[in-house]
Each structure stands twice: as structure tokens, then as C-alpha cells.
Amino acid sequence: MTEIGIIAVGGYNEMGRNMTAIRVNEDIIIIDMGIRLDRVQIHEDVDIDRMHSLELIQMGAIPDDTIMNEVNGNVRAIVCTHGHLDHIGAISKLAHRYTAPIIATPYTTALIKHQIESERKFGVKNNIVALKAGETLEITKDITLEFINTQHSIIDTVFAAIHTPSGAVVYACDFKLDRTPTVGEAPDFERLKELGREGVIALITESTNAGRNGKTPSELIAHMMLKDVLLGTEEADVGMIVTTFASHIARMNSIVQFAEEMGRIPVLLGRSMERYVGTAYQLGYIDLPESVEIYGSRRDIDNALKKIMEEGKDKYLPVMTGHQGEPGAVLGRIANGETPFKIETGDRVIFSANVIPNPMTQANRYSLETKLKMKGARIYDNVHVSGHAYREDHWELLRMLKPEHVIPAHGTIQMHSEYIQMAEDAGYSLGDTLHLLRNGEELYIEEE
Amino acid sequence: MTEIGIIAVGGYNEMGRNMTAIRVNEDIIIIDMGIRLDRVQIHEDVDIDRMHSLELIQMGAIPDDTIMNEVNGNVRAIVCTHGHLDHIGAISKLAHRYTAPIIATPYTTALIKHQIESERKFGVKNNIVALKAGETLEITKDITLEFINTQHSIIDTVFAAIHTPSGAVVYACDFKLDRTPTVGEAPDFERLKELGREGVIALITESTNAGRNGKTPSELIAHMMLKDVLLGTEEADVGMIVTTFASHIARMNSIVQFAEEMGRIPVLLGRSMERYVGTAYQLGYIDLPESVEIYGSRRDIDNALKKIMEEGKDKYLPVMTGHQGEPGAVLGRIANGETPFKIETGDRVIFSANVIPNPMTQANRYSLETKLKMKGARIYDNVHVSGHAYREDHWELLRMLKPEHVIPAHGTIQMHSEYIQMAEDAGYSLGDTLHLLRNGEELYIEEE
Amino acid sequence: MTEIGIIAVGGYNEMGRNMTAIRVNEDIIIIDMGIRLDRVQIHEDVDIDRMHSLELIQMGAIPDDTIMNEVNGNVRAIVCTHGHLDHIGAISKLAHRYTAPIIATPYTTALIKHQIESERKFGVKNNIVALKAGETLEITKDITLEFINTQHSIIDTVFAAIHTPSGAVVYACDFKLDRTPTVGEAPDFERLKELGREGVIALITESTNAGRNGKTPSELIAHMMLKDVLLGTEEADVGMIVTTFASHIARMNSIVQFAEEMGRIPVLLGRSMERYVGTAYQLGYIDLPESVEIYGSRRDIDNALKKIMEEGKDKYLPVMTGHQGEPGAVLGRIANGETPFKIETGDRVIFSANVIPNPMTQANRYSLETKLKMKGARIYDNVHVSGHAYREDHWELLRMLKPEHVIPAHGTIQMHSEYIQMAEDAGYSLGDTLHLLRNGEELYIEEE
Amino acid sequence: MTEIGIIAVGGYNEMGRNMTAIRVNEDIIIIDMGIRLDRVQIHEDVDIDRMHSLELIQMGAIPDDTIMNEVNGNVRAIVCTHGHLDHIGAISKLAHRYTAPIIATPYTTALIKHQIESERKFGVKNNIVALKAGETLEITKDITLEFINTQHSIIDTVFAAIHTPSGAVVYACDFKLDRTPTVGEAPDFERLKELGREGVIALITESTNAGRNGKTPSELIAHMMLKDVLLGTEEADVGMIVTTFASHIARMNSIVQFAEEMGRIPVLLGRSMERYVGTAYQLGYIDLPESVEIYGSRRDIDNALKKIMEEGKDKYLPVMTGHQGEPGAVLGRIANGETPFKIETGDRVIFSANVIPNPMTQANRYSLETKLKMKGARIYDNVHVSGHAYREDHWELLRMLKPEHVIPAHGTIQMHSEYIQMAEDAGYSLGDTLHLLRNGEELYIEEE
Asked: Where does Zn(2+) 1 bind (chains A, B, C, D) (predicted)?
């Protein structure tokens, strides 16, 4: 008999500070250690890199893992299923408390290492182990970890299956069932269906977009919309700026490719461009054309912008950080007139990103767009698709895996409510096979 | 010297009952005669076909063309720029008052003839003349009509240019600048730019989506999203229903093609399917595969649905009317359990349409979806893109045509306000070169 | 030791078809049997009075009390806490299945009797017992029912306390903590606090407005806003129409009083006006001035409207049904021009009601208002306050009663989610002392 | 014959930087010189007091009065109709350019003097003249200024009538038709109707709330809701904080009065409390009880908060600035834990203010409320009524004044659109008697 405990450490009452612990008898696997940046944003003058974890816990910015003291067992591994900050951002603050390796896909491990290096308060010495999608790793005699390929808005995202003597616990947080991705492979549907046949004890899955009907549009849709915005115009000579998530490697790849088709030189500007795109290139996830330029420091960026102004805006496609109106990002500095790049009437600013639905971000975006418009910029907003499964994708995943128990995660209680209604349609019953957990709670499942 | 009058007959205070008269000295060209169906919808038990025009005018359902009595001139032509009801729906009620031919593209003329045939109150005897995109027709010695190819959510849509001795008046209502259409050609950008160089006195253009940022996604995007919904699934054997605008021939064409790829027989159900798709096929706008079946009468439809149930839902792709929850449409009857087709848990209903933003429609859709969900259907909503230009498409059109005067049409004052702000960005000045007209008003322009 | 079961029969997944069963060992008290009218509304041509309960259950219109077969115990009483249809509307369909008296406050019992009389399918022969706020009734040796005065948008609303040997179960569904009501007394705060001290095992409470911040405005606020709309004008001579909930006796009382102050004769029009207001008057809940006129039949109503037109609109204040745009109601018939009453430019229509947030109702209201405006009416909307407790009222009730267990009811899972977050702030813990029930579920509580 | 020019200087394209010039032949009266603070807010590190007017004009923060150079005439007076910053905030930047006195009501003149004193860039030496509501002042032989009493969310607000030989031009911007104000008198309806009889050439009026149906609730409603929040509770001993507009003297008056009824000492905290409330008290607009305390400096405020903590929160009612989440305001500092005042679970924060509908403010409020809630505060939001006329108030004003021409002001084109539709209902015709002006435009009216 196996006793499974699902411990909701963070991300069950909110979006962001994700952390789940899965206990198999007395061995524990932690999955994800994320940060909730909007809880940091509401405070002025915060230097996260120097803050203590307890302070960040109190702010609600990172998971309150002090509850782990009451869980009966030993942590054997810390697993990260992709490299976004809401999954790895608290590693540098919390991982050192556990004597356990950190296991993630290759791209994710590279980002985790960056994360740890920039930390100023704690030293994180845990072993970091790369495991590829499709591979397995024995954690204890009884527990094997398997990574299953999936898609999300960052490359090298996986589902994690924790195999126990009584079946698997599957962690599927932050994914889309994209059958026509532009980088990487479609999710491994065959393996998912096989897992369903083998027997899944529990599925822990994100509820973020469970309230949106239908299925998430493929990244191919964003690719084509963006292509149309960039190439389908009668004003091909105007200044154009693209801004998108630096970590969205597939999108960056498309943009660079379109720049080539436009006969423009792609210039990537921003510190995080260097980190995310550079790393993806070094690890071989994407190809970059010879012409591409990447600049991370403020001085290099301003020099590049100066060159663009001198040689002609129509020769370059600058791609930059700042789509959420982050103060200090390149686009914000351009809007403030703080760089050599001057916006002229008719220049285009293309946001290949949504607006994160948070009042702080909305205000920053409003400021940014107002300033850009006052200078004459034309705005193309939301040339983007979501990286999170919609309701019917969840429906399909649920029916492939056929788990005995389902636990929505990564969201507010309102988001979980949407998931619950879908799962009830699929035959699950709240309080019996379907569970609404709150941060700090442990769900017990006994299996033969 | 030429005196131009732009008479806002209908569609300047609202969406729907579009009618504009363009007076060139004492000759008048009427463009569009549309109906506003939501003004009919708010009344119960209305039989439009038997109603008198004055009654419909009083209801606000059709343009109040009694104001034409005060316009100094003679109507020389009635032009319809595409075949939607908000452009041709009042022809049968109003056209007989004018001794003038009705001029439209071939597909539009076919629809106008249907319209006139179903009329029960008036006899419309006007001559109906087909003019293709790219062609011109001399209306009077001084006035030549030109049709310029464009794209919209119905095939054979055109811009109309009224050439006068002093330059052209361009009517660009209901269009999208789609560079990758799935049926027909992209708008004739070269001709538009040429017109701009020749001199455009006035542009009358729709403001419908002037408030939406960026550009309208191409029909190709809808095509690919729909393909992904239909073909990209691990549950390929469930019942699937598609519902879309019968008049959206490009969309219908995609659906029929996807059915083939799915190995399913496409079955088109609904009276308007027969009319719109049948006509498009007969006129050679689309190809249909041998396998396709189309049924218009209630008995034929129910027989077809019975056959589908007997032979297996997985062998057919029924495509039907009813996406707005219209009472009596095929999908509504299925939701009510009034047909042999039974929805089972997991069957999919795909709305390849938006919800028309009107409380009556929203209520009908809510009823429909509620009933479908209670039967176990999974809903895929809004697998669709708009047929109306967004703000930046308007920006480009304005800069191609460089009209002296701009008049937003086809919308509420709020929609016009959005257009006005964009046009001001482009250098136009309200009350001088940019005009906000209200129904019943005439704008005078004197040209050398 | 007492075993308490809280059985969520209806109204836990939705608004409307409320029914809760409280089991005390093997004795059961049913509280409320309501109907969900919007589930009826989505179907055309439904005659509820002749429908069978199983059909209505299948439509989701009344509670699915077939689950009561699996509850171990005998029903000893059916209690209704006020007279709205979502609390009493299913009595005529379900009560006859139980050999138990129906217990309610005097006004509520009168409405229940009306309800039973209009039923055409079932004969309901249960004994009907009136119990006043502040009174108690022994149900079994171990169970005593107590009614505690509260406020809501209908008079004679109570909280029900089920006293058991181990403490009380309190049912507080549909209430507001109104300290300045215009009819009746403020809630009995002293008794509530006393109950808190005596010990409350469980509180079952509505979550309807738990998501709205602050406290519900008092009925006095509606009273004064309405007074200002009616009396505070420089156009005192125009036609004025008021429409409100016929069952909102306090509001009706204010309106009649304002009519007097305006020097106008109040004329109450509509069948439900007769029922609700007439009953309240007969039972002595309100006084009516001599001048008041009430008409219920279509013929009487039309005659009254004719008289108003003849004698002068400025002499009368017609008060009528139809605020939700119900087809066939008096105001709707006026808007359609089907009565002798003619709306003229500047006449006022005052909606002393909110719009029920349901697409069907919103469409009806839209139709109604559009027609009224086309005739020249000026609309005063939402001269109204809610009858449901807001978040901070719930906070106060929770801290007065200090229940061991809390169960939100009367709402969707989204509404319950709002309540849950508030209750967590107050120290309750989901799954332990705070419970999210779904229709059909029983919660077990064991008490010493 | 008189030629009237209405020059839209600012506030016709936006909310905030209001300025209108009224030319009577060659004499000009300027009305209002306001600032648009949200255009300042989107920039960091802006010190308005030291900025040059041209810079502020370029930011869109103050009216672009450079267009006055092209108006043919001399400015004879600068009139301010109330003391809010969107009416007087640009006085210190622009007034010195005109050799003309500044005329305003007594309270407004006091605020204007404060404004001028805090200016660091320009010296404003214009004569400042106080004129009371009900009084008139001859400006030139042909022009007389009259102030007519009205109500708004600040005391001593007036309508301005500019009497010319051909009739009056009435400026009615920022008002409500409050018949039960809590401080001051109701608007002077008799004089307004008399003006209508005498003949009004043009009405310039705010469109801010023209889109909201019905009438603005009276300040008495806010008074009573606030009273209920403060006094109607079973938790009378908890900490309570009220925050409201310091300039809303009527509201402040109510709060102070309620503090007395609660047996708490009212403590007014914040620099602007000192300015606005202190001035109102000195000028005799309100009475303050002996017990009241007012502190403006940070040190005094913190000392007062310390005393409150020491002596018991239940003995004081602190009333403070910060309702919009302004960084650095008292409430924000409390939320940040920067003052001696500690929020405990159950303490109440009452926002007697709306949230200004601007993303910057919404973000600040979100931050503020999040922090307050994390500390355990219970939030009562929007215990408030608007100070701006709703649609039907505009309807009544229009019918009292019967102006020949109407010009909506103080709003975006969308707000004006709402006004226009109302005015069309009242018989006005756009482009003829109803005018949509844009900043920088002059409307010419010739009168016999």
C-alpha cells in the first residue's frame, strides 16, 4: 500500500508562487519553486536579490514552505517543469533548505543556474541535474521521475510523472496542447494515453485558462498574425519595433526569420534577450542568422539605437524588452525620449504579447502606450496567443490520462472553480475524486 | 465647378440600415439600402416581407429615405457594394421608388434577386446590372462608377468609386485589407494608390471596428484555427457540428475542405445554406466536392440528421445555421431535442462565428448554449475573425487614398468617434476635412 | 451525541432552485423549495403549472429532491424563510411527496397558499403552519425551530435556527442587515449574538453578494433616491411611471406615500400587484391611503390607463409590473402601444429595480427600453438597493454567530468562492470548518 | 449685432485641462484654467511647480493657450467657476500672460491664492476678485458676468452667465442638480428658468456623466450611506479610518459630525486637509466641533497616529488623504507600515470616494488595498456619490435654459457623444444648434 500526499505549498490561492510537494510514503518530491512578481511590484524600492526568504514569504511573493516542517518525510528531489520565474524564481531563496538535487530540462537548468548566480542573499549549492523530455530518472527505489514533452510559451517544457508502486502522479502545470508548434515537438500524446492506460493516481494541473472556452490557438497562429503585421503592409518603409517576451524563444525565432524576409537586420535589445535567446542559441534550440545583433547593456543598446537612426529605421527591426511597460526597459526608455531612437508619426510598435491582467501592469502599459502615441506611434497590440490550455484542452488531457483524482493548481479559487465545473462534466465529483486545495493543505490518498 | 453632396440617409447613427446618397450637381447615386434586423427583432410576430416601408422606417429598421424628397437632383443609380442584408435588405422596400438601375457585383445581384422575389408587399422592377470588380460603368456623361476589388466576410465585395469631373468620391464600407484571403483576391492596393494619386474628393468609410487596435486578422487565421479545432484532436470520433454564417462563402469552403481531410461527409443544413452556398457554387466562386450534401427544407434536414444518427456521427460533418441562437434554425432545433440528432456527452459544437453584440442575440446564444451544454456538448466558440477593418487598416487606407474629406459611416456616434481620433492623428480636422454626419444630414463640398 | 447532516439539494451550484435538508440524527427538516425561473425562460411555450416535477428537475428548474431517497431519516417539517419564488416556487411540485407540515411566517404562508392554488398538476395537502419571527416551535422532542427577524427585499423574512441537543444550525439565506428599514424591524442582533454565545454548530448562508465590498445600502437609501427622482424635479407635470417588484412591499409602500406627496393618485397595475400588495395590506403589514387603486385584470388595467389619459397623466402615478421587460406585463404592453396609455416626449419611466443579471432578462429589458425611448420616454434606471448582504455584512454575521462550521449556499461556485475567501479571513479553514458543497452532497458533522 | 466666439482651448478632447474662451465681438472672457494630472502622473520625477508652461502644454497637462494668439480680441477677465485643480490648476502657469483680473467665488479665490503661492516658476500678479453666487459684475460696458449658485463636490461652485447685448452665454461645467445638499443651497432653479425666458445664446456644459442614466444621487445619499457604515455596526469598537477628498467640504463636514455621534474624536490628517478644510472653516462655510484635530506635516501626523495607538483606536476617527492610493499620502504610508498606526484584523478602512477611472490610479488603489487587506483591514469602498450631473439632470437644465446653441465640454469625444444623443432627443441638431468642438477650434455665432 502506498500513501500519497499532495501538499499545496503555493500557487493554489493565487497565480505565481507555485510550489507543490508530492509525498510517496515518506519520500517527497517538490515540484516548482516560483515567485509572484506582482506581490513584489506593489512595493517600491524592493531589491529581491538581497531579500531574505521569510520576508518574501510574508509579502506573499514566494511559497510559504515553512509548512514543509509538518510534512512527514524527506525531500528527495526538487523538480522544475519549465524555466519561467513563477516556476523557478524562488529556487534561489528556498532550495538551499533541502538536501536534494534540482532536476529540470536542459534549457531550464541553464536558467536556474543564472537565477542562482544573481542571488545575493543565499548560496544555493544543490546539485543541478538535466533530464530531457522523454527520459526517466530513478529518485528512490520506489520512485521514478519521467519527463514527458509538452508545449508552452517557453521551450523545453515538460509534464512530470512521478511513478510510484501504485501508479503515477502526473504534474501538468503550464502547458498547451499545441499540435503545430514552431519550435520543438507537439506534446507526446501517445505517451499520455499510455500513462492513462497504465493508471494515473492523481493529476495536478493548472486552471489558469480553464474558464476560456474551446482550445488554445497554436503558436502557428501567432506566427502568422505576426508575419501579416510585419510583412502585409503598404507602408513597408516606416520604423517598426517589436516587443515580446524574451523567454518566448519560438516567438523570437519567428521574428528574426520575418526580419530576414523583410530585408531588415534583426537587433535584439535588452539584458534578458541576451540571457534567454543567447542561451537557447548556445544549447541549439534555435538557429540565428548571421545578421542578427544582440545587445544587453544600456550603453550597447543606445549605441545600436543610434546606429539605427543614422543608417535608417527601414534597415532594421529592433526587438526589445518592455512590452508590459516595465520601468527602465528599452521600450519604456524610448517612449520617454531617453535613447537616440526617435519615434515619428506612423512608426509602428508591435506588442507580440498580451497585457498581464494586473492593475500594476495595466498602468505601466497605459503610460507606455500613451507616451508612444503622443509621439505618433501606431500600436499593434496582442499579436499573440496564450501558452496556457483552454477548457477543451483540459477536457482532452483529462480523458487521455483518466486520473483517479484531479487537483487544479496554479490559480485563484475562481480559476479552480472553472476547472471544477469542467471536471464535473467529465464525471469527477468534488470532495471525492476532485479536490479544491488551499495553500498549506495536504491531501491524502491511499492506494493499494 | 462641381458641387458634391454627401447625404447620410441611414447607418450614420446606428449599425445596420445603411444608405448613402452621393449627389454630383443634380445627379444622385444611392449606395446601399440595408436593413437593421435588431430593430425588427425587438418586436414579436413581425413579418417583414409583408410590411410597408413607412412602418419599417418608423421602427428604425430601414433608412428613412423620405428625406430624399428634399435633395435637389435625380437618382441615376442604386449601387450595392456587397450582399449582406445591412446593404441590400431594404432594396425590396425602397428601390421601387426610384427610376434607376440597381448595380452590383454578380454574386450580389443574385442575392438581390432572391431578396426581391421573397418580397410580398412591393414589386421591385428596377433593372439589375452586374458589374465586376475592376470594371467601370458610365452612369451619366459626367459620372462613372468603378468597382475596386476588396475583401469582406462575403465574396464579391467591392469599394465603389464615383468618378466626377473634379475627382472621385470613394465609398469603402465593409471591408478588410486581407492580403491572404482563402477565396478571391487581395484588395487592389495598386488601384487604390493610383486613385490617391489621381485625387479623391471624399472617402466614406465604415467606422465599425475603428476602435480596435492593430489590423484585422486575415481569413487565413480563421481557416487555420478552424482546421486545428476540427483535425487537431485526440477525440476524432466524436460527433461534431459546425455552425457559421451561410453567407460566409470562404469559411464554408474551408469547412467543406476540412471535412474531406477528416474523412467525413460535409452536410450543409439550412435554407440560407442553399441560397448562399448554392448560388456561389453555381456562379463558380467555389468548388464543392462530390460528397457534399445540402438540404434546405425542414423535412430534408431532419431526414439527413436521421441518416447521420443511423450511420454514425463520426462519418459526417453537419454544417448548419443557428450560430446566433436564432429561434427555428437547425442548431436551435437540435438543442431543443426537436430533431433526430441527439447530442451526447463529448460531442462538439463549433461556432465559427462571433456573437453579434446585441442583447437579443446574446440572450438567444445563451439559451442555445445552455441547452447544448445540458445535453453534454463541448462548445468551441468564436473560431472566427472579423470581416471589418481595424484601426490600422483604416490608417493605411486613408494614407493610400489621401482624400480631401473623410466621412465615417456604418456605425454609432461612438464608433465614429474612434475613427475621428485616428483620422485626426493622420492630419484631418473635424468640421473642416473630417465630418461627423447624422442621419438626414447633407454635407456640401464644392470642387473646382 | 448528535449527528448532523447538511444535505445540499438545490441552489448550491446555481442561483434559484434553493433547497437544503438538515438532518438531526434521523429527523430531517427541509428548508426552502425554490424554482429557478431562468431555466424555464430558455424554453418557449412552457406552462409550469401543468408540468410534472421530474420534467422540471430535468430542466434544472426545481431542486432534484430524488436524492432525498438516499438520506437516512424522516422529514418532519418543510420550512420556508420568505416568500420569493426561489424559496417557495417548488412547494407545489415537491411538498406533497413529504408527510410534513409547511412552516413559514404569516405573509409567506399566504403566498404559499396562492402558489398551491394555482398549481394544475399536483394536489398539495400538507398542513400549513404560520410561525412569527421571534417565535419557536417544537418539531420533535429533540428539535425546535426558531424564527429570528431579519430584513430582505420582501417583508416577513426570517433566519431559521434549528435547535438540537448539541446546539443550533442556523439557516441565513437571503437577508440584509438593514438597520433603517422602512417597513418592519431591523434584524434581531441581540438574539443573533445570544445564539453565538449559546453555540452554533453550523451556519448555512447565501453567498449571492459576498463578492461585493462593504455593506448593502439600507432600504432607506432606495426610499430617498426614489423620493428625489419623483419629487425633486423642475418638470413635475410630465407623465411618470414607476415599475418595481410587486413583492417588494416596503418599496411599494414608499411609492404610494410619495404619490400622495406629489398630489397624484397611486394606481397599482398588474396581477401580481394585487396578490402581493393586497395580501400585505390585508395582513396589516402596510397601510394604504384611501386614494390608492389596484387593478389586476387586463381589462381593468386598460380601463385605468384610459382614465389616466383622459383625466391627465399629471394626476396619477401608475405603478406597474414589467421592470424586467417580461413579455405581456403592463409596461411591456405600454411600450408596444397596446394600451390606451401613450408615452410622450419627456415622460418618465422609473425602474425601481435592478436588471437581473441574466442574458434573457437583459434582452427583454433592452427591448423594452428601446421601445420606450423611441416613444420619447426618459429612463431612470436602478433606483434601487439590493436585498442581499454584501461582504462586510457577512463578516459581521459570522462574528456574531461564531459557528463551528460554515456552508455557503444560494449561488454558483464562483459566488461561494468569494464567501470562502471572506470566511478564511475570519479564521475558517476550507475542508475543515468551511465547506463547499455541490448539489446532491451531504456534509456530516458529529457533535457531542 | 453681436458676434460671439466660443473658443475650445482645453478639455474638449479630454478630461482635465479645462479652458474655454468666450469672445463677445473683440472682448474675451476666459473661463477656467485647469490641469490634467494624469498626464503628469505618467511621467516619473516631475516637479510641476518648477515646470514651464510650454513643457506642460507639450505633455498635454495644461491647455494649449498659444492658440489665443490667433483669436481676434482682448482678454478682459479670467473666471474660475470652482476650486478643483482641473479648473484652477493652470492659473499659476498661464494667467500671467493676460492683463486681466481673476474672478471667482470667495472659497475659490482663496484656493487660487494658495495655488499661486506654491508656484516656483512664474509670478502671477493678476488682480484676484471675489464674486459671490447671485452677484453680477460689469466686465466691459457690454459684458456683465453673473454667478448663479449650483452644487458640486466642492463648495462655492457656480454657473457663470456672460451677459451680452444679444443674450447670455451660460457656462455650466461641473455641477449637480442637488436639491438636498448638506452644505450650501440647492441650485438657483428660479434664476435658471428666468435666464431661459430672457434668452440664452449658448450653453457650454460638461458631458462627464451624460452617459449615465437617470439623475445624480444627492449628497444626502452619501451622507446617509456613510452614517450607516460608521454607526450601523455590531463592531463599534474596531479601528476605523475614513479617507475622502480633502476638498469635499460637505463630506468632511458629515464625517466630523458622525465622529461626534460615535463618541470619537475626529482627527484630520494630511497637508491638503489643512488647506481645504481649514480654509472652509476660516471663511465660515462649515462649523467644526471643538474636539476636531487637524495635522498637516508628516511629523504632526505621525505623532497623532502614535497617540491614537496609545490611547485606543476606538476613541478616534482618523480622516485622511490617500483614497486614490497616492504614493506618500497618509493612508499609503499606513499601508506600508511606515507610521505608528498598525492595522489589525477587523479594522475598517472606509473609502468615501470613487476610484478615478484611470489605469494609474487603479494601480495605486490596487496596491493600497492589497497591502491593507494583507494586514487584516476590511474595506468599505465607494461610500460616495458623484458630483457630476447625469443624463436626466442635463435634460432638465437644457429645458430650463432653452439655449439656442449647445456645446458639450469637459470630456472625451465619447462623453460628448452621449451628450449629443441626449440633446438630439431634446430637439437639437448636430452641426446646426449642437456643436462638437475639438481643442483649438472656435465656433462663431452671430446674433442680432
From this structure: 82, 84, 152, 174
